[in-house]
Specification:
alpha+beta, 45% strand, outer membrane lipoprotein receptor (LolB), chain A, twelve-stranded mixed β-sheet, 12 strands, disordered N terminus, 4 helices
């Protein structure tokens, strides 16, 4: 299950851009796919606050379910919070607190604005232009609903995954599938999204008073 959590963080927090350029012979991105992705970016930027519930499922190469986790993500401007069983991640836009419930320990890190790490907000905006080639595969069924499918191929071939599929409806990404070179497949699905949520700023900061006896590891 820790592997599932690491993949969730890959999807939502910890992708680092390499600002790569497509090698010769790799081809170009699809203009129609770019129109859809750009529309997602524009729509998402219009929201003041977003609250979403999700399910993350991992399967092996033969399709066997290796585990499932549910969680929630909250976003406001550059702030975010991710909640999954056993762990909470808070960010006020400049600092990240990672709280492990089992050990009652919180690790604090400063955000490096030059690192280009992806936040949940960036996942819904224009991250695709820097690390991927993309193409529109057309309409497909996803959870009983017809959606547009866009395929992303990483430019950096050292990545542990070789393909990402996005399932999109009404300029919203509802499902993301990540295909690893090992054969494992990770499916991240949004089960509920509120774009008119009212979120207080203290939602995104870690208050030690609410966690009696918490051990603080400050890496700033």
């Amino acid at each position: 299950m820790k592997k599932i959590l690491y993949t969730l963080l890959f999807l939502l927090v910890s992708i680092t851009f390499v600002n790569a350029q497509p090698p010769k012979g790799m081809g170009k991105s699809d203009a129609e796919a770019k129109k859809i992705l750009d529309a997602i970016s524009v729509k998402f930027k219009s929201y003041k606050c977003v609250q979403a519930k999700f399910v993350l499922k991992i399967e092996n190469a033969s399709g066997k379910n290796l585990g499932t986790k549910s969680g929630a993500v909250f976003m406001k401007a550059t702030k975010y919070r991710i909640t999954v069983p056993g762990q909470d991640i808070f960010s006020d836009g400049s600092t990240v607190w990672t709280y492990e419930k089992a050990s009652n320990e919180v690790t604090i890190n400063k955000i490096d604005p030059t690192a280009n790490s992806i936040t949940p907000q960036k996942l819904f905006t224009n991250f695709y232009d820097k690390d991927f080639l993309y193409k529109l595969n057309g309409s497909v069924k996803n959870n009983g609903k017809t959606m547009q499918q866009i395929e992303l191929t990483p430019i950096d071939k050292s990545k542990p995954f070789f393909k990402v599929l996005l399932y999109i409806d009404n300029a919203t990404i509802y499902t993301t599938q990540v295909f690893e070179k090992t054969g494992n497949r990770y499916t991240y699905s949004v089960t509920n999204m509120k774009t008119d949520a009212s979120l207080a700023d203290n939602t995104f900061g870690f208050d030690t008073k609410k966690y009696p006896g918490v051990e603080v590891v400050d890496l700033r």
